[in-house]
Amino acid sequence: MQTHRGKIRMSIALIAFAIVALSLPTPLTLASTNHTVIVAQYRQDVPVTLDAASANEISTLDPSLASDTVSISVIENLFLGLTNMDPATNQILPELATAWEVDTSGTRWTFTLRDDVYWLRYDPATQEADRIRPVNAGDVVYGIKRSCDPRLGGYYGTILAKVIAGCDAINQTPRADVTDSLVYGDTVQAIAPNDTTVIIELSFPASFFLSMTPLVAMRPLPAEAITGYGDDWTDPGTILTNGPFFIEEVARGVRRRFVRNETLPQDLLSGNGNIEVVNNTIVEDLSTAFALYQRDRIDSSSVPPAELQALLEDPDYQDQILQIFDLSVFYFGYMHDKPPFDNIHVRRAFSAIISREAFVAQLRGGRGLPAIHFTPPGLAHAPPINEIGVGFDPVYAADQLAQAGYPDCQGLADVTIVTYSGAGSWGEFWAASAERYLGCEPELFTIEQVEFSVLLELIDSDTPAQDRPNAWTLGWSPNYADANSFVNDVLSCTAENRFRRNCSAVDDLIEEAAREPDPAVRDELYAEVESAFFGPEGDFPLVPLFVNADYILVKPWFDGPFQTDGIFSGVHWDAYSIDMAAKLAARG
User: Fold this and answer.
1) Which of 98, 158, 270, 352 is a plausible cystine mate for 575, CB 3.0–4.6 Å?
2) How far is the C-alpha of 271 from the C-alpha of 87, rounded, in Å?
3) CB-CB contact of 258 with 562 (8 Å)
4) DSSP conformational letter for 45
């Protein structure tokens, strides 16, 4: 998932909707006119409230479109999936699916669903919810097929297309040629023979498929809400959800507020958490968020780099500071279809001028592991972190720039580097390294900081070339514990391909590694892939910088699986607890 560190409602009248017979699948169980009004049970004078701060807006609440950590973490709490990722152990657990089996070919998966989960609409004005109808197998099939639709432009459609049979045929069809009947017809091999059975056919026996089933792009979706409200279907008061929380408010630039869905069956909760309300205030400056933490206004906070050493040595904070390793890899991305990074030698040169050790020490306060290839340690088939990749090599960099025809940076095109908010110093470090090791003039570089959702729009592969930057900052978190989640889902030319890189022999190698059943052979193949990208003769689609290792502050009254939750999925709010009496006492 796209990473930027910084994570509900019921009322109703039946939505009138018309579905063309060949266009969209009619849910197998239609909405009833006998609506049940559910009053929010969390009401009390002081509900158990999680107060948090975030520097970033939600890009989308649509599970078919979300790709960034902020959006995915919210969606995790709004929509249930076929399976769930245990927040403490990161093992796959049943969620909507109570059981599953795969045939002897390894390609046909059958999931059996529970029938006691409902679509609900929450009204923020009345704080009441209406029960619409049960969630059924048709909703799962609809959600998968919709995610395959290239007209939506969802990143995860390209990921599902590599595994689910027929999804590739849809996802790779030119958008102008795609129709509803094509998307929701029989091409994508996901079917619902009855209300509680989903059958998914794979293109090959992907050993990692079960670990993909918690993906937000595979969540069931209510077709009637989407067709009835269009792009507005995720608005507060309109959205239908089935998860542990409802949306109370989304005020861009100000705050987000969510409330507990107390009607969810208890065995579907991710833990024994007691949080009833989640308040998330938008605070772009980390120092401001830290000040709010010190004043007991928020329950957790990232640590400003300048404060880290003092906090580590302060006995008052010994029980509040935690170190987190989340396997996110941050990087500079290159646009391969724009000068100067359309030249492979320039890409190699600009990667080799960055001392990852200095970058992590100076800009991250030591919070990270220097990375010279893409797949992080901890994932199946990942090469050792320091064995493959050029890394920092100024001599190699200068030679490569000369081979590109730009000795001492003479004649090199201007470079625009776009970073998300708070990462402007990353671009400055890169530009200073180019000046020091390649002889580039500072005026060559323009560094722009933008809000995260704006960054995603700027680097979208469909954005006209003249509007895209030459390079940008981003990170990727694993969606499942396999190297395929990095090299295939991000670097392959048939992925969303924001880099606009051309297909080459390495893409065949990536495909071979995904399909290989022998684990030892997969180890060798993924090592070859990383070398083909980041070795001395590599293509360098991006510049790997570091594997994230961070520190967070957590108040004594706040408890939960902070060090394990959210590594492979969104954070589960229902796994956390707050001692509200202790919190209120601290606030005076």
Assistant:
1) 270
2) 8
3) no
4) S
